[in-house]
């Protein structure tokens, strides 16, 4: 049986599934329930500096988008960091950690961008026996307007500076949580590394307006007729997060920097994909907020079963396995030729592949054959784009088949060449022409 | 002492009040309760918005089904209803009575995919109910053309034709033999398919466009013949359905207790108190179509103890769809096939049973085997097909070409006379379906308009 126990920058947990810093980890009651349910660790809801706690809105703080059957696909929130007293939180952290020594207990922090502010909170956290801290440089709303969260996370110099202050003050591992609301994720990651961070975690939420109420023209969630941009998370953000994790994993300057993967993780598969792209473990928020803590059972058993079926014994067999396969477009093999193929036995004749290809792509799928409704790929037209595969409602009904080397590509009339060849050597590439 | 509920239910012979009024009320509730808003959203989510959708092809009125379902799913129920009613102004009734399992839902790709089609009928009802409750009208009359058209019969085909003619600005006079409009929507469709007086509400909704004048108790016949209609109007549309009923063809006078299924159903639809309708304890229904099933099921719902449908061929050849046969079965109706009526048994002038002969096919011909069975019955219903009826055939025969006893028509409803059109059950193109009747009425109106504008 696969061993999924996790060691992330020296922090041990029985599995790689942590709850991200958010409402699920805001108090002892929730965190204990989470540990009972089987979660490997938590990042406690972000603490702020000493003094009167911040306040949240008293109206709705979430908005959402849904897929078929109202499945929640994206969640948007305008919640701030914890609105509970600092010392109450610290007391609870200490108690829970003492009761659950085998689980990872990370404390998320966000205080003003001043050395003293950081240096005075760290001893208080250390005293709880927590395993590490996470610096919240990611929150896109409410806190950034006050010069914290994403406001820091968007300026690499600040990240480096604050990280350094923390590393100088505490023995605890420092994880820097990154905001996706920047144009190139590698800069903040490099800054975190330069400041001495033990790891980065990403992504925090994406700046967003989730919808507009068409009766009163207020953005949602609407507070007395007004709305503010919020943070977007849940399944919809997973592709954004995966790319950012991969970017950091393959950047020469940050290669080897441990990553805690976050963003839209809902099932064991999502988690496995993050691991494969280089995340050392994963954090989950929206999925738990949608379905409750029990989902971790499926995540654990699914990950174990998949690892067993593939012969992966530990997480190290999986982590980063896909990273070398992430490359830049110009290095993709242009001699890899595919054609869509429709399995007539499973096709239900909905015609979606036809109309998608006919209206918007390459006119490569029939809708009639001898007067009968019939959908079939016309190899002479098919460019192998995969659109039909993605719009077909029947799984695996359309497959992409490679045209083997030596065989004719009916579209170009040329034989498929076996040799790997990419854009950098393609005759149409102007930079090659220029070099001549 | 008053009879107990049990004694009332088990009385021999033909008797009223077998069930208590609350039991009757419950029995004749909507068979397919309408979807609520949440259910409609869930159901609409399942539609794939197919290209050249097979469900549309399968709908005789060619409603743009993926379009209206997408409209429901985006919260545009009113737009959905407009999409439906554009093609089928009786979309509300069709949503209730169409055998969708042999029409749109049979063709739905999700029937092929999972054996569970999108619930097109119920979604159609959801959309049309909403706008009909609000009496939201979508169609206006064009400026009047001054042309006058006679429509015979205020059934589905006549109403659909009249509505479309009015849209084109023509003036319509409907001649209706009965004192109420709706045709079989009002007198024939099973009570549990169209509750709460829906048929009349729909007639009001359809005629609200204006320009349609319905004359009741005005059958065409010896006093008002086709010739006169043609003289008085610029064109004539015939939609008189089938008012005759085939006989069982047994020797001798029919005893009491033998009845036409359609008459029984009409009686049931028109009564204010179902408890007053007399029904036998043991019933035999002869036939194999929708009428036989409706008659049998409703007899059961009225409190008959034992109801048997006898059909002369195999069950798979019955006109009633598979689904309707199942509906009968779940109501406890017994379906027996390969039996043809031979002789009625009587007791003091009333029917007491029926002897049927087993049948089989020999060289594709149906023949009796000689072996018989006798079923006890206090009532025997005939449901073996309808005809134009003697009066209507007499009126039409000399002037119009008939085909197998029905009016011969072309695709667009044109008959052998160039200013006369026909549609629905009375034609040889009819399908004995409400929705086909609607399609034919609508298409004839288009054809008439073309003729008048030429
Ligand atoms: C018991 C029963 C159940 C059925 N159930 C279903 C069902 O569930 N689903 C379905 O799709 N179909 C069903 N049908 C079939 C459907 O009702 C018919 O196909 C449809 O009503 C035909 O419409 P129509 O307008 O042609 O004729 P009709 O509905 O018969 O209307 C004809 C109209 O013409 C009038 N008329 C007749 N003679 C004259 C005259 N001489 N002068 C003036 N007016 C005249 C009649 O009074 C009537 O109003 C059922 C039929 C029956 C009998
Ligand atoms: C209501 C809510 C509150 C959050 N609060 C915090 C927070 O206080 N600190 C923090 O670092 N991230 C916070 N997050 C971000 C989550 O930790 C996480 O990074 C993000 O939701 C993406 O993961 P997911 O797609 O699994 O939800 C919050 C998210 C939500 C939905
Ligand atoms: S989730 Fe709980 S706290 Fe939030 S609105 Fe609903 S009932 Fe209130
Ligand atoms: S989209 Fe898929 S199921 Fe639909 S017609 Fe094309 S191949 Fe068949
Ligand atoms: S066939 Fe079914 S899935 Fe396709 S458009 Fe029609 S109702 Fe929708």
Walk me through the structure:
The complex is a heterodimer of chains A (436) and B (454). Chain A is α/β, with parallel strands linked by helices and 436 residues long. Chain A has 13 helices and 22 strands. Chain B has 454 residues and is an alpha/beta fold. Chain B has helices spanning 5-10, 21-27, 37-45, 54-58, 65-73, 77-87, 91-97, 104-107, 109-114, 120-133, 156-167, 184-187, 198-207, 226-232, 261-270, 290-302, 322-330, 390-397, 434-453; strands spanning 14-15, 148-152, 171-175, 212-215, 235-238, 244-245, 258-260, 279-280, 282-287, 306-310, 334-336, 339-347, 350-362, 365-376, 379-383, 386-387, 402-403, 406-407, 420-422. In chain B, the strands form six sheets. A five-stranded parallel β-sheet of chain B has the order 4-3-2-5-19, sandwiched between helices. In chain B, strands 7-15-9-10-11 form a five-stranded parallel β-sheet. Chain B has a three-stranded antiparallel β-sheet with strand order 12-13-14, with no helix packed on it. The A-B interface holds A 68-70, 348-352, 354-355, 367, 373, 393-394 and B 41-42, 45-46, 48-54, 109-110, 112-113. Bound molecules: flavin-adenine dinucleotide (FAD), flavin mononucleotide and iron/sulfur cluster (SF4) (3 copies). One iron/sulfur cluster binds at residues 47-50, 53-55, 65-66, 69, 108-110, 118, 120 of chain B. Residues 47-50, 53-55, 65-66, 69, 108-110, 118, 120 of chain B line the site of one iron/sulfur cluster.
């Amino acid at each position: 049986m696969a061993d999924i126990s996790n060691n992330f920058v020296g922090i041990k947990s029985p599995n790689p599934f942590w709850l991200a810093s958010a409402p699920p980890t805001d108090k002892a009651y929730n965190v204990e329930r989470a540990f009972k349910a089987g979660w490997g660790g938590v990042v406690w809801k972000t603490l702020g500096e000493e003094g009167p706690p911040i306040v949240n809105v008293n109206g709705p703080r979430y908005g959402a988008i849904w897929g078929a059957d109202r499945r929640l696909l994206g969640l948007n929130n305008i919640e701030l960091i914890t609105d509970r007293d600092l010392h109450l939180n610290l007391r609870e952290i200490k108690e829970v950690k003492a009761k659950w020594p085998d689980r990872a207990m990370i404390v998320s922090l966000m205080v003003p961008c001043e050395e003293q502010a950081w240096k005075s909170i760290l001893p208080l956290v250390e005293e709880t026996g927590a395993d590490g801290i996470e610096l919240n440089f990611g929150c896109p709303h409410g806190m950034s307007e006050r010069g914290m969260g994403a406001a820091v996370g968007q300026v690499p110099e600040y990240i480096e500076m604050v990280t350094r202050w923390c590393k100088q003050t505490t023995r605890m591992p420092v994880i820097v949580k990154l905001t996706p609301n920047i144009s190139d994720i590698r800069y903040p990651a490099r800054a975190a590394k330069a400041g001495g961070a033990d790891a980065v975690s990403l992504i925090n939420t994406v700046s967003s307006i989730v919808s507009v109420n068409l009766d009163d023209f207020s953005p949602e969630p609407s507070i007395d007729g007004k709305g503010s941009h919020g943070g977007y998370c849940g399944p919809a953000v997973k592709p954004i997060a995966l790319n950012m994790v991969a970017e950091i994993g393959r950047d020469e300057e940050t290669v080897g920097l441990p990553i805690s993967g976050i963003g839209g993780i809902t099932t064991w598969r999502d988690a496995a994909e993050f691991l494969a792209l280089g995340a050392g473990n994963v954090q989950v928020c929206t999925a738990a907020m949608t379905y409750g803590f029990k989902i971790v059972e499926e995540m654990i058993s699914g990950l174990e079963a998949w690892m067993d079926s593939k012969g992966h014994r530990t997480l190290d067999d999986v982590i980063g396995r896909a990273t070398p396969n992430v490359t830049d477009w110009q290095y993709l093999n242009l001699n890899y030729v595919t054609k869509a193929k429709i399995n007539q036995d499973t096709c239900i004749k909905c015609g979606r592949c036809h109309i998608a290809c006919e209206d918007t792509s390459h006119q490569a799928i029939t809708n009639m054959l001898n007067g009968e409704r019939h959908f079939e790929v016309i190899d002479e037209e098919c460019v192998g784009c995969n659109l039909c595969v993605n719009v077909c409602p029947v799984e695996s009904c359309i497959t992409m088949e490679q045209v083997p080397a030596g065989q004719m590509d009916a579209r170009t009339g040329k034989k498929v060449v076996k040799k790997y060849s990419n854009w950098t050597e393609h005759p149409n590439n102007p930079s090659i022409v220029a070099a001549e | 002492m008053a009879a107990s509920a049990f004694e009332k239910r088990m009385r021999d012979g033909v008797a009223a009040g077998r069930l208590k009024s609350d039991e009757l009320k419950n029995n004749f509730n909507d068979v397919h309760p309408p979807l609520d808003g949440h259910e409609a959203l869930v159901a609409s989510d399942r539609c794939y918005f197919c290209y050249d959708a097979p469900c549309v092809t399968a709908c005789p009125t060619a409603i743009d089904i993926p379009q209206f379902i997408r409209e429901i799913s985006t919260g545009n129920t009113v737009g959905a209803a407009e999409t439906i009613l554009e093609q089928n102004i009786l979309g509300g009734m069709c949503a209730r009575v169409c055998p969708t399992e042999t029409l749109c839902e049979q063709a739905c790709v999700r029937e092929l995919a999972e054996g569970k089609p999108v619930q097109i009928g119920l979604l159609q009802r959801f959309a049309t109910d909403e706008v009909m409750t609000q009496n939201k009208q979508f169609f206006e009359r064009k400026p009047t053309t001054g042309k006058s058209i006679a429509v015979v019969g205020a059934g589905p085909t006549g109403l659909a034709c009249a509505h479309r003619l009015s849209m084109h600005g023509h003036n319509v006079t409907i001649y209706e033999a009965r004192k109420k409009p709706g045709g079989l929507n009002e007198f024939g469709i099973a009570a549990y398919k169209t509750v709460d007086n829906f048929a009349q509400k729909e007639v009001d909704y359809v005629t609200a466009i204006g320009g349609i004048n319905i004359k009741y108790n005005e059958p065409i016949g010896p006093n008002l013949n086709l010739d006169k209609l043609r003289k008085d109007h610029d064109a004539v549309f015939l939609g008189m359905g089938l008012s005759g009923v085939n006989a069982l063809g047994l020797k001798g006078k029919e005893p009491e207790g033998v009845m036409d299924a359609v008459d029984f159903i009409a009686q049931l639809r028109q009564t204010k108190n179902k408890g007053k309708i007399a029904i036998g304890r043991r019933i035999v229904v002869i036939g194999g179509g929708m009428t036989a099933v409706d008659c049998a099921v409703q007899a059961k719902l009225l409190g008959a103890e034992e109801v048997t449908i006898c059909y002369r061929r195999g069950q798979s050849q019955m006109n009633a769809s598979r689904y309707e046969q199942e509906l009968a079965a779940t109501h406890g109706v017994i379906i027996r096939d390969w039996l043809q009526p031979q002789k009625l048994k009587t007791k003091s002038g009333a029917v007491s049973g029926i002897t049927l002969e087993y049948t089989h096919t020999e060289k594709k011909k149906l023949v009796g085997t000689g072996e018989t069975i006798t079923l006890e019955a206090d009532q025997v219903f005939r449901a073996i097909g309808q005809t134009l009826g003697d009066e209507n055939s007499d009126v039409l025969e000399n002037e119009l070409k008939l085909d197998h006893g029905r009016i011969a028509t072309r695709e667009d409803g044109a008959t052998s006379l160039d200013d006369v059109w026909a549609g629905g059950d009375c034609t040889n193109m009819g399908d004995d379906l409400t929705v086909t009747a609607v399609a034919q009425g609508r298409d004839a109106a288009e054809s008439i308009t073309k003729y008048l504008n030429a």
